[in-house]
Structure formats: C-alpha cells, structure tokens
Write a structure and sequence with these properties.
Length: 462
C-alpha cells in the first residue's frame, strides 16, 4: 500500500488519477475527501494478511495542501484534520476488520511546531506524533514529510506504546520495522525499528530491467543541453545575501510576469551549477518543485512585513560580530532552525536587513531599483511562486497579515506552465549564460555580515 503526498497532488489530477488506476495496490488518504459526497477520494485503509493475522493500514495525507497548491490541482477535494480523521476511522477499522495490528502510513512529519503551529493547531501539517498520542489503537506509524529522521516511541492516551519511524527525505534512508507476531492471538507483538542507509545497497537487476524503458526516456530528456554557463555558480551563496542562483529566478519571474517586484527563495543550497554545458538536469537542482508563477497585488506595508517575516526565519539576532549570522537549531550544530526554502528575498526594490536589530524591525526598504519612491500604502504587483502565493511558509498570512481566504482575491495572473519549464525556456534563448547578481539588498552591519558568513558557511558545507 502507499499513501498519497502533497507532491503527488502537485502533479495535478491527470497524473494522480492515472497513477491510482495503474497501481496494483491501494493509493490511500482517508482525510482527502470529495466535497460533493464527503467520502474519501482515495482508499482510506487496506488490510494485509500474514498467515492468519490481519494487519490494517490507515493512510493519512498532510492537510496543509490548500496552503501551498493552487486549487485547480485539487479541485473538488478537501483535506481534513489528521487526528480527527483517525479518531473517526480507527473504530470503524476495529469493528469491521478486528485487526491484530494497526499501522499508520502517513504523509506527514513529526515536527508539529513547524511554521509556528502548536500541538492544538487545527489541520496541523505534521501531526504524526499527535495522532500517535491521542488516538489509541496504532502499533506503528510510518511518517514522512518534514524531512526529519526519527525513530521514537510514544505513549498514547490508553497507556500503550507506539513506534514512530520517519526515514527523512530524498530516498537516502529507509525505515524498517520488524514485527514478531505472538504465537497466540491477543498477546502484544514484539516490535523493533531501524533506519537503514540506502547507500549500502544497489538496485536489483530485475528492478532495473523493469524500469529500463522509462529510465532511458528520463535520461534522454534531462541530458539535453540548454545553454553554456560561463562560470560556476554556488547554491550556498544564496543563504548569505544576493546571489546568482536567486538572481536568475528573480529575472525570469519579472520578465515573464511584468511584475514590479519579485520574491524567491533558494530551493536547495548544497549544489553547484558548473561551468560548461548547462543541462535540463541542472534545472532540477536549481528548481526542484512544480510551482506555477503567480502575480499578486500587495501593499508596500505588506511587502515590508513579508520580508520581516522571512528575515525572522533566516537570520540570527547578532549582538556582535562573533555571533552566528544564520539562525541555527539550538540542539544541532550546523543545522538550520528553519527550512531554507522559506528564506525569501526580493528583487525590484532596494532594501537592507539589519541583523543587529530586534525581530520585526530589521528591514528597511528605501526605493525601487530604478529610483522610484516606495510607499507603504501603495499597491504593487509582485511575482512569486504558487506555493508562496497560496500561503506556503506563512509569509503572506502570518507575516504580511493577509487572511488566508483573501489570497485568491490578490491573484491577478498565473502561468499555465511550471516555473522550471519557464526558466528553461528563457535560458534556451541565450547562447551563453553569464552569471549575474542583483545587488539590490544587503545585510548590515557589514562587519557582522562578513564575519558571520565566514563562520557559518563552513558549518553548512561540513
């Protein structure tokens, strides 16, 4: 069995409906409902057999999808709270199936505080621990969404132990659970879990042969040259101020949308685009997600608050040059406290971020890049990806203070094709791509920026 995730929905209904029909096992998500009927759009659960033992598997998807994806990708669906859905379905499963084991297969992470959420937040996008603690009946929960690796035991409200296992992201690890069923029914099983590095293993010949045709098509596509890159550009530079990686995206967004301002974030930092032939595959390093390009209307004050919110996720409050520039996790050296893809910068306006000032008082916007005055109460057009424009990361809602329901009224234009395609199309027009940087913003005080960058950059690359 498999549970659908937000990136499956991101591909659009033509893709996920096609996959659902082709799979020889259930595609699940009990909390993704058809609005018209109120019934699960995907399978809510499935039952596996191990000899005479019955193993029920309940699938739940992160309910945060409407916050990140345009409605045309999930039209007619709604995504309910995970704990409320589990509370509804566990008794149904226990009555109908009477399983010997109940497994949760969740596309949802373990960090329920992500994005400023709390344990009690409705429709928490990372509710795996919440379900484990609050809904009795689960023996094991497989989790995955927030890219956190964990293997931990939780005690539920009935006093029973639940194993949660999350192998992280990018297929680097596998979560394996070994369950020894008792010889006599009614006794608790022996459960052990481990995280296995995939690098220790090679794909089988049978697997490679089965997908050979599809793999050849993909290789042929991603090996196509786009243009020539005149010098190497480094992804990590985008975490320390204006950089060629983000400047390229800014330029494409503003050229295509004709917006006055552009917002973008680094979607990866541990990669480089090397001098030489630039391939389609390189664009998947630069832009990993299938986001559309939006043009939205924001006031100058909302733009300022958006950037203040971004800075609060991104930068430490520095008291002197010996402090960290970036905001790191208190419990892990070199691990960023927040996700780098929420570190949004702007193009089209001139501004500074003063990391010596308190959170909320760091950003100062002086003018448009061309010299035009920038006013808090004026309305401007802003280019951004559909994830951010739908409320993803909280920049527009928590940061700028725009009600979630109001966001669709701020949208004035949307691309039909995804941003990666648009970037490829624009770059292909060039015989040679010469890296450039929009120097429209900077981190101050300069001494703080310079020393903090020298200290923090090696920590990220270690």
């Amino acid at each position: 069995a498999v549970t659908a995730g937000n990136h499956d929905i991101e591909a659009g209904p033509e893709v996920y409906n096609k996959i659902r029909k082709e799979l020889e096992f259930p595609l699940m998500a009990a909390n993704a409902l058809e609005k018209e009927t109120g019934l699960p759009y995907f399978e809510p659960y499935t039952v596996l057999k191990a000899g005479s033992y019955k193993i029920a598997v309940l699938g739940l998807i992160t309910p945060g999808i409407p916050n990140w994806l345009p409605e045309n990708l999930w039209y007619g669906l709604e995504f309910n709270d995970m704990a409320a859905t589990a509370k509804e379905w566990v008794p149904v499963i226990e009555k109908k199936v009477r399983p010997d084991l109940l497994i949760g297969l969740f596309h949802s992470g373990v960090d329920y505080t992500y994005g400023g959420a709390t344990y009690d937040s409705e429709k928490n996008e990372n509710a795996s621990i919440i379900v484990a603690r609050e809904i009795p009946g689960f023996d094991v929960i497989f989790a995955g969404h927030d890219h956190r690796i964990t293997r931990q035991w939780e005690c539920n409200s009935a006093g029973d132990s639940v194993l949660i296992i999350d192998p992280g992201s990018h297929g680097r690890f596998i979560g394996e659970v070994l369950i020894k069923l008792p010889g006599k029914k009614g006794k608790p099983p022996a459960i052990e879990g481990r995280i296995i590095p995939v690098s220790k293993y090679s794909p089988t010949a049978e697997f490679m042969e089965h997908f050979e045709e599809e793999l050849d098509k993909v290789k042929k596509y991603v090996s196509q040259p786009i243009t020539y890159l005149s010098e190497t550009i480094y992804g990590v530079d985008a975490l320390f101020g204006p950089a060629p990686i983000t400047s390229l995206v800014h330029r494409v967004q503003m050229q295509i949308s004709n917006a006055e301002i552009s917002f973008t974030s680094p979607l990866s930092y541990n990669f480089n685009l090397s001098e030489g032939s630039l391939l389609v595959s390189d664009m998947y390093k630069l832009y990993r997600f299938e986001n559309l390009l939006y043009t939205m209307e924001l006031t100058g004050r909302e733009i300022d608050r958006f950037l203040e919110y971004s800075a609060s996720l991104w930068f430490n409050s520095m008291k002197d040059p010996s402090d960290h520039l970036l905001l790191f996790d208190d419990n892990s050296t070199g691990r960023l406290k927040n996700q780098y893809y929420n570190f949004s910068s702007a193009a089209g306006i001139e501004y500074t971020v003063d990391v010596s000032k308190p959170v909320g008082e760091r950003v100062h916007i002086s003018k448009f890049t061309g010299g035009r005055n920038f006013f808090p109460d004026e309305t401007y057009t802003v280019a951004m990806n559909s994830h951010r424009g739908s409320g993803g990361g909280g920049h527009l809602t928590t940061g700028a203070g725009i009600p979630k329901a109001e966001l669709k009224n701020r949208l004035v234009w949307s691309s039909e094709m995804d941003l990666r395609y648009l970037i490829i199309r624009e770059i292909m027009k060039l015989d040679t791509l010469h890296p450039f940087t929009f120097e429209n913003w900077k981190i101050v005080p300069e001494q703080f920026h310079t020393s903090g960058k020298m200290r923090d950059k090696p920590l990220l690359l270690d």
